[in-house]
């Protein structure tokens, strides 16, 4: 098994359980996934739910019960994307993995737009479950790392000591509440002030000449006199250290007045013992540069007791995945007695890995020789995890730009377009060299009002997609309708907006066609309801009168035909009003229905030849109606001696006759309502045929039969 698989890779959390909610409407598959995930790692616990609505309720009523959601896409009542969108309303950071058999670029694009953590397509074999377990573990570890980082920030905010961060030019970027209070300022007042503001003019030179240079070699700590906002003096213990990006970290605490606390320790030893970061001192005068001092924070960081580390070289923290390059950089700096900073993977006493930022600096004696090395050690696992998360998000965005089937654009808070993908260029008819970048959103979308757009963007929830419709101007002056998924992103403190635009021209055309068809169906329903029912009612009445005047075996047959006609009218009205929802689709033998139709249509001396052997999926009543109308049409126009043949085609069936045929110029109009060349015809027969064909999703065409008559071909598959 790969070393990165869950069974061999330690968790960030140690033994903490990962609680996964798995949502899949197939209970057998859900049970299988649960079994494999829990076998993949002892720390994984899975709860399955087959109803996505119940799963959503669980997440909302038990907000801390789950560390990750794994969901199918295609489920009754609620898709996995819809579930994701609802989860994001309450739990914007909860890991959510779409584990679906419906793999497509469209689904992946929609999932990314909705804020999915990961996307995995179901496949065959055991490996897919190991991969799912690995993905879930990675997602949860990043989630926990972010949570711990948030808690760390909260700890800084509530610390009793003052903590501030200054930029490389010395201006305050951040200060916690305690620091601002000690200096007598509101927090907002201190932001942007230079550190010189808090010193007496006579002390400024000392800071430049002594404190800051020492801080650059590692860390400076001592007692400093500050000037509060009201002009009074504050004497405080003061710590300074630089980060790799040149920022200056400052700590302030009231000086300790209990002399007993310092008994047996020098001020420097006490400061190091109580420092919030791990500190060790090593002695280069002895072989292998052993540790001669380690503070309490180093014990907490590594899990080793001081007695276990004194006399050993720091390399005992290294392990199988420690970077050789980082170790070589440290060794080179120590050999040259120069300060350096590296980040490398070290291992705690219990074997768990952590990312360690190590800063090493030499301490020189009066002769200029290194008498000790001081090492400052910070746990930066959380910041590494955050960087990995940002890197993954960047990879998602790059993949979205390169592979998305939709148009993708990025614009800023002023509506200025910063970037677009190739599909955007192609769809709007621009060459790649043409500059869309720099145009505004309203240059391209005529539906956007600049006065209302910017306030709308400002009020968007970050990382929460909003969907709406708009239009885009093509280069040739035409416009296309689009569906927009808009996401607000914070990129290095700057608001950017990711717009995923989907061309819905085909959808709009289908909607327009559907509206037109529904209008036609409504008109057709009126004809069926009124124009057919009236003569049928007359026929029924006349038959009742005939029954009173004479006795004949034919009367019952006529009454049965009337009942059949009434049933046909009802079915036809159902098609006109309800479309395919009124049909019962099932396997139907064409030959059997054809033979039955021949007995219900007045055919005189006409002949029927049934060559059909196929069984097709159809509504039997509608198919019977279609065949009756085609047979009736053949007899009406071909005469009593016509021969009607019903047979198979490779993709459906045909009905043909050997009558006079339909002129080629009239074939495009025969299906129109009212078309008829017979004095007794209603003009509805072939119109009804077309309605039945459309309701089934079939196709019909007219050609000439071999004998010169008419051939109707119906494509059913």
UniProtKB/TrEMBL annotation:
Q: Which UniProt keywords apply?
A: Kinase, Phosphoprotein, Transferase, Two-component regulatory system
List residues, modification 4-aspartylphosphate: 72
- Please provide the Gene Ontology terms (biological process) for this protein: phosphorelay signal transduction system
Membrane-crossing ranges are: none
Substrates-to-products reaction catalysed: ATP + protein L-histidine = ADP + protein N-phospho-L-histidine
Enzyme class per UniProt:
transferase
Q: Which Pfam families match?
A: HATPase_c (PF02518), HisKA (PF00512), PAS_4 (PF08448), PAS_9 (PF13426), Response_reg (PF00072)
Looking up InterPro entries in the UniProt record yields:
CheY-like_superfamily, HATPase_C_sf, HATPase_dom, His_kinase_dom, HisK_dim/P_dom, HisK_dim/P_sf, PAC, PAS
Citing just one GO molecular function, the answer is:
protein histidine kinase activity
Histidine kinase domain residues are 527-717
Q: Where is the PAS domain?
A: 154-192, 264-313, 393-436
Residues annotated as signal peptide: none
Q: What is its EC number?
A: 2.7.13.3
Identify this protein by name.
histidine kinase
């Amino acid at each position: 098994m790969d070393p990165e698989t869950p069974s061999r890779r330690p968790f960030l959390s140690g033994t903490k359980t990962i609680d996964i909610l798995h949502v899949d409407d197939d209970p057998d598959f859900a049970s299988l996934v649960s079994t494999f995930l829990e076998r993949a790692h002892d720390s994984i616990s899975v709860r399955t739910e087959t109803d996505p609505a119940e799963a959503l309720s669980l997440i909302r009523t038990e907000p801390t019960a789950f560390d990750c959601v794994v969901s199918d896409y295609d489920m009754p009542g609620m898709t996995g994307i819809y579930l994701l969108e609802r989860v994001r309303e309450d739990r914007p950071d909860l890991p959510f993995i779409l584990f679906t058999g419906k793999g497509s670029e469209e689904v992946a694009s929609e999932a990314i737009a909705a804020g999915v953590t990961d996307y995995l397509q179901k496949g065959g074999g055991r490996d897919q479950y190991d991969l799912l377990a690995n993905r879930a573990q990675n997602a949860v570890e990043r989630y926990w790392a972010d949570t711990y980082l948030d808690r760390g920030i909260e700890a800084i905010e509530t610390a009793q000591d003052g903590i501030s961060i200054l930029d490389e030019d010395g201006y305050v970027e951040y200060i916690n509440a305690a620091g601002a209070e000690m200096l007598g300022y509101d927090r907002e007042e201190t932001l942007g002030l230079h550190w010189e503001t808090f010193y007496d003019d006579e002390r400024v030179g000392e800071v430049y000449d002594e404190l800051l240079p020492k801080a650059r070699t590692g860390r400076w700590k001592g007692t400093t006199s500050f000037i509060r906002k009201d002009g009074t003096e504050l004497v405080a213990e003061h710590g300074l250290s630089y980060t790799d990006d040149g920022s200056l970290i400052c700590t302030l605490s009231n000086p300790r007045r209990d002399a007993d606390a310092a008994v047996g320790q020098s001020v420097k030893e006490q400061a190091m013992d109580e420092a919030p970061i791990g500190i060790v001192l090593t002695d280069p005068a002895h072989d292998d540069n052993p540790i001669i001092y380690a503070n309490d924070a180093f014990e907490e960081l590594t899990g080793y007791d001081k007695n276990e580390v004194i006399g050993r070289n720091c390399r005992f923290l290294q392990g199988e995945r420690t970077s050789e390059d980082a170790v070589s950089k440290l060794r080179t700096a120590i050999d040259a007695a120069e300060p350096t900073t590296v980040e490398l993977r070290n291992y705690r006493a219990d074997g768990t890995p952590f990312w360690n930022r190590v800063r090493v600096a030499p301490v020189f004696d009066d002769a200029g020789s290194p008498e000790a090395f001081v090492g400052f050690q910070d746990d930066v696992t959380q910041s590494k995890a955050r960087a990995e998360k940002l890197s993954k998000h960047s990879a998602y965005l790059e993949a979205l730009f390169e592979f998305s089937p939709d148009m993708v654009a990025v614009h800023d808070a002023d509506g200025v377009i910063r970037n677009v993908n190739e599909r955007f260029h192609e769809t709007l008819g621009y060459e790649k060299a043409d500059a869309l970048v720099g145009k505004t959103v309203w240059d391209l979308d005529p539906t956007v009002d600049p006065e209302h757009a910017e306030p709308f963007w400002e009020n968007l929830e970050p990382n929460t997609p909003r969907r709406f419709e708009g239009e885009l101007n093509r280069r040739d002056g035409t416009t296309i309708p689009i569906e927009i998924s808009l996401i607000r992103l914070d990129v290095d403190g700057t608001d950017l907006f990711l717009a995923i635009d989907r061309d819905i021209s085909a959808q709009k055309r289908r909607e327009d066609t559907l509206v037109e068809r529904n209008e036609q169906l409504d008109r057709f329903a009126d004809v069926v309801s009124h124009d057919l029912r009236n003569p049928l009612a007359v026929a029924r009445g006349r038959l009742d009168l005939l029954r009173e005047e004479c006795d004949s075996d034919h009367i019952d047959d006529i009454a049965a035909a009337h009942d059949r006609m009434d049933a046909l009218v009802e079915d036809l009205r159902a098609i006109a009003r309800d479309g395919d929802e009124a049909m019962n689709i099932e396997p139907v033998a064409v030959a059997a229905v054809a033979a039955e139709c021949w007995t219900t249509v007045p055919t005189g001396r006409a002949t029927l030849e049934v060559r059909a052997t196929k069984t097709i999926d159809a509504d039997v009543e509608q198919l019977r109606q279609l065949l009756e109308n085609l047979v009736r049409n053949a007899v009406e126009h071909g005469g009593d001696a016509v021969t009607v043949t019903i047979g198979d085609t490779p993709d459906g069936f045909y009905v043909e006759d050997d009558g006079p045929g339909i002129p080629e110029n009239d074939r495009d109009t025969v299906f129109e309502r009212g078309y008829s060349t017979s004095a007794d015809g209603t003009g509805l027969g072939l119109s009804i045929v077309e309605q039945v064909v459309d309701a089934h999703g079939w196709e019909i065409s007219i050609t000439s039969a071999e004998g010169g008559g008419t051939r109707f071909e119906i494509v059913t598959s």
